[in-house]
Each structure stands twice: as structure tokens, then as C-alpha cells.
Amino acid sequence: MPMNYRDLFSGIAFLIIGTATAWMGKDFYADAAYVPIGAGALMGLFSLPLIWRSSVSILTSRATSQPVMALVDHPGRFVATLACCLVYYVALPSVGFYTTSALFILLLALVLGERRPLVVLGITLGFITLLYGLFAVVLKRPLPVEFFLAY
Amino acid sequence: MFASLFQALPVALQFGSLISLVVGTLAGILIGALPGLNPVMAIALMLPLTYGFDPIIALGLVAGIYNGSMYGGAIPAILLKIPGTPAAIATTFDGYPMTRNGQGGLALKTACWSSAVGGIVSALALMTLAPMLARVTLAFGPTEYFWVAIFGLVSIAVLVGKDISKGMLAALLGVIIGLVGIDAISGAERYTFGTLYLVGGFELLIVLIGLYAVPPVLEMAEKRNESYFNADSFRVTASGGSLGLLRRHWKTWSRSSLIGVAVGILPGAGGNLAALLSYNEAKRRAPDPDTFGTGNPTGIAAAESGNSADNASAMIPSLTLGIPGNLVAALVLGALMIHGLQPGPQLFTRSPDVVFGFMWQMLLTAMLLLLLGGMVATRLFAQVLRMPTALLVPTTLVLMAVGVYTVNGNVMDLYVMLAFGLVGYLLNRLAFPLAPVVLGVLLGPMAEQNLRLSMLISQNDWTTLFTRPISQGIIALLALVLLSQLWKALRSRRQSQHRGI
Questions:
Q1: How far is CA B148 from CA B142, B144, B320, B344, in A?
Q2: DSSP states of B67-123 as a string?
Q3: Chain A, 69-98: which have a CB under 8 Å from a chain B CB?
Q4: DSSP notation for B160-176
């Protein structure tokens, strides 16, 4: 998507956020409303030049001078990484921190194209041992308990 | 106040502090050496781990990571032409050609010495200028602090990035994020949507990790799985003595360090600007400017001392006024707040051991670079470039998860971190600068509380904001920043029209 379209959409998004912030802020108690209204109004105000410039640029079919970076470079890997993260966060409380983390590293490394089993296993094992040493032994931080120790 | 500085030296030399300095510097060099990871991300990840530590130990780690990563960024810049940190871009200009000429050893040694010298000069500037500025700021009241916060926020919003409106929108987004939760003065809920999770507001650290650490990891995940290791680059020959370096580069180091210190004090200007300005100045003054870019060690000396001299000096406005000069300085403010310390001039009288101890730590870590960044160690650190990105991504994500989880022991924080990560990724792709968002979260509440306090004291007389002399001075400075940016924008538009673009 060209940069001027991105600017137009982001400008509109900021206008909506700004207006909503100011609108909701007007109901706050006394001086607690000053900054919410001010920040919301300013956001709306600063989104206008962005909307104006991008609209003019689109209407005159003029390309912006800014270099255009793809919104997502590799959608497959991007979505797979996010999906793995979500599964990791969902499983964390019930499966346990160290087990889930080890499985997460193995799975995501595989998804991202690492095909050397010894390297993956070695780094995973070393990394989890390091985390255990740091969090369980040194810092004694409470982390989600492993499922096989919970009963 | 300088007596407090010397009294804090034993604090910085405590066993725990020294260990944190060594660990932080080693971790910093390793992180800096890995392209894709940056000091901001490293410090943000490390902060949750320091909750239970003494503040001086936590700040020791921050100082070590900061100074260490600035040198670490030079390792891949010299060996592989890949800047480990954005500030190391100028180091690639002469660093990589030197490696190709078989002078990699000399290039790394020059970078290490230059980083150390830049860091030492910067720490000395922090030690001398910050206490003086803190004394001046004791005369500040809520009105002045309101304007200081506005100045920090607006100047960074307009100076970072190319588009003023985008910078301002990013800063305002940060301010709005900072509004969520219970209002500290009236006790009323704001933007909580009846959700219990939002009542406490967004934890600064979670916002920071989400905005700064998640997007680079997502970008790394999108690239092909490969390690940065290149066997040819590691065939480096040994270099000459250190005394020869001192004789050859002392002028460049002095000049570049001063440039770095000046750039560091300015809000919004980062290490990469300091390095580029220093490099250009060294080239301009050199008798052989044509050799720059083909493997001239003076180019490395200028770039590395310039970018490291920015480090401690960026802390001057943060520690004295509470306005961070760059993102690492913002994180240092976060670290202080996590440990219950309020940045500003009172910090110098209430917790002199911590603030002056931190200054010593910045100096000590710059010196440590000479010990820890030697040739053998550097070659060892360079081995981290063997780590394939497909393994670097999940291990970094696990580190983030454990760091964020330990803040409150709440899994919900992980989802919030990921959401902020996506926002950061998107803003990055839409060419919005991220630094003003973080500063908005930090400075927004400061501006609001001081504004409301001013109104309370003056019984809602708005003119009080504009009548005090110090406030007028800050407003004049703010107007100067805005007008200079406006003039720059107009000039650039006129030039492009002139060229017919």
C-alpha cells in the first residue's frame, strides 16, 4: 500500500482516537478532565494535516517522497510467530513455565526454518537450564508450576 | 554537592555493584554484537529482573549494558559490515574496509579504545554538569516542571523523525496511554471501561518491552533463518600497541567526545547523530580525507568515541529535570521509579548515593571496556554471531515473557505486551517514531500532575503558567525549537520545489 494511503488511514484512526478520548474525557470529575480533553483535542488537531496532505497527494496522484516499507515483510512467518506466542501464553499457566518455554522454542525454531535437531535441542536445553538457574535458584521468582509437579 | 559525589564512590565500588558492572558490560557487549538486538531492548528486558535488587545494583547493570552495547555494536559493524546498533552505522564506513585489508584486529582495538575514551569523557561531563544543573532546578516549582515536561515531550516529538505531525501524534498517544487507570489526584477511574485489569493503568515496563522489544523480534522472525557468521571476516591479524593509538587519535577522541557530549544533552538526538557528526568533522579536518571510507582508523576512532560520548551525557537532563535525552535515559528513569526514586533535583539530596553512585558506574563501565573488550574477548563475543535467527527469536520471546510475567505474576500482562508489540510494529511501518510514545507515557503524568498542582496553588488562575520568569525562559526555548523545525521544514520544501520535485 502506498505511503499516502497509509497516512490517510492512520490520520483517520488518530482522529477517531483523539475525538473519542476528548469525548469520554469531558465526563471526568472536575480537573481530572483537563488533560484527557486537551490531549484528545490536540490529537484530533494534529491528525488533520496528515489527512489533508495524504488526501491531496492521493487526489493529485502524487507519490510521497518517503520510502515505502512493506506493512509485513513475510506474512506467513509473521502470523506463525504470533500464533506460537498466543499458544505459548495460553499454555503457560496450566503446563508450567519451563515445559512450555522449551516446547515453544522447539516449535518456533522449527517453524522459522531451523532444521538441525542437535543445535535446536542443545540451545533449548542450555537456555532452559540457564533460566532455571537464574529464576528458580538465584532469584527465587514464582513462575507457573510444571504440570507434572502440580499434583 | 561534589562532596556527595566522592562519598558515593565507595557505594559504586561495593562487591555487588562491581559484579553488576562486569555482568552488565559483558551482557551489553554480547547484545550489541547481535544485529537486531539493541541496548533499549536489553535494558527493558533486564529491568523486571532487578525488582528485588538494591537500586545501585540495578543501575550498575543498566550502566554496563549501555556502555557495553555501544562498543558491542562495533563488532559486527567492523567484521561483517552489519551495524549491531543504529549508532554503529558510521563505524562500518572504515571498519569493514579495514577488515577486508586484513586489519580487523587494529579496527576492533581502535573501536574498543575509542568507545572507552568517549564513555569516560561523557561520564565526567555527567559528574560535573548534572550537580550544577540540579542546583539550578531547585528553584523550580510545579509550573516550571509542567513546562519542562511539555518541553521534553514536544522537542522530542518534533526532533525525532521527519514529520512533525507524526511525532506529535505519537507523543499524544503516549500521553493517552498514560491516562488509563485511577487518577492519582481525584481517585476517579479514567478509560478503564469497567475492567479491573485497567484500574491500575498500564505498567510502564510492559509498555516499554512491548513497544521496543517485540517489533525487532517480529522483524527478525520474518527474515530467512541464517546466522551472521562469516568465517572470512574472522581472520584478523594482531594489532600494535595501545600507546600508538593514544598518540595517533587523541585529537580525534577529544573532538568527537565533545561533539558526543553536546549531542547527548540535546533531547531527541541519538548516538547515531553523534557518530555521524564526529565522523564528518574528523574527515573535514583530516589531511587525507580521501582515505576515509577505504579503511582509515581515524574514521572508526571518531565514530566510536562520538557515539559512546553520547551515553552518559544523555542522562544529564534525565537525572536533573526528569526529561530523558534518549530512550535509554527514559529507561533509567523507569528503573529509578521502579525502585521508588523520583527523578529530578530532589534525587540529588534525597538519594545522593544512588544518583552519584550511578555516575561513577557509568565511568567505571567505560573503563571496564578496556579490560573486557580486549582482542581475545572480542573474538569470543563475535561468536554470538553464529546463533541462527530461528533460535534467537524464540529465546528472546521467552526472555520477554518471563521478564513481563515476573512483574505482577499475571498472564494477562503477556497479552498486553504482545498487543503493544503489534502497535509498535505497526507504528514503525507507518513511519511514526516510537520514542515520543514512550516519553508521552513517562512525561504525560508528570505534566498533568504539575499542571493541576499549579492550578490548585493559584486557585485556577491560568496566567500563573505564563508569568514566572523561569517558565517564560522554558517557553522561549520551546518556541525556539518549534520555530527552528518549522524553518527547516519550509527550507526543505522550498529546496524541493526549486529542484522541481
A1: 10, 6, 11, 11
A2: HHHHHHTHHHHHHHS--SSGGGHHHHHHHHHHHHTT-HHHHHHHHHHHHHHHHHHHH
A3: 69-74, 77-78, 81-82, 84-86, 88-89, 92-93, 97
A4: SSS-HHHHHHHHHHHHH
A–B: how many Cβ contacts below 8 A?
171
Q: Supply the pLDDT for residue A85.
A: 97
Cα–Cα dist B108/B378, whole Å: 8
Question: Scanning every residue of chain B, which has its alpha carbon at the shortest distance from the alpha carbon of A51?
Answer: B165
pTM of structure: 0.80
Please return the burial class of B434, using the count of CB atoms within 10 Å of its CB with bins 0-12, 13-18 and 19+. buried
Mean pLDDT of A108-130: 92
Min Cα–Cα distance to chain A from B363, Å: 28
Evaluate whether B40 touches B331 at the Cβ level (below 8 Å).
Answer: yes
Reference B70, options B55, B56, B90; nearest CA is B90
Confidence bin at B190 (pLDDT 50/70/90):
very high
d(CA B173, CA B180): 11
Q: Is B390 on the interface with A (CB under 8 A)?
A: yes
Average pLDDT over residues A78-96: 95
Check: complex ipTM more than 0.90: yes
d(CA B452, CA B470): 18
Q: Sign of the CA dihedral B386, B388, B394, B397?
A: positive
d(CA B140, CA B148): 10
A138 touches chain B (CB under 8 A): no
Q: Is the pLDDT of residue B257 over 80?
A: yes
**Confidence (pLDDT) at A73:** 87
Q: How many residues does chain B have?
A: 501
Report in angstroms the alpha-carbon separations of B96 from B99, B285, B296, B307.
5, 22, 10, 18
Please state, in angstroms and rounded to a whole number, the distance separating the CA atoms of residues B330 and B443.
Answer: 10
pLDDT at B233: 56
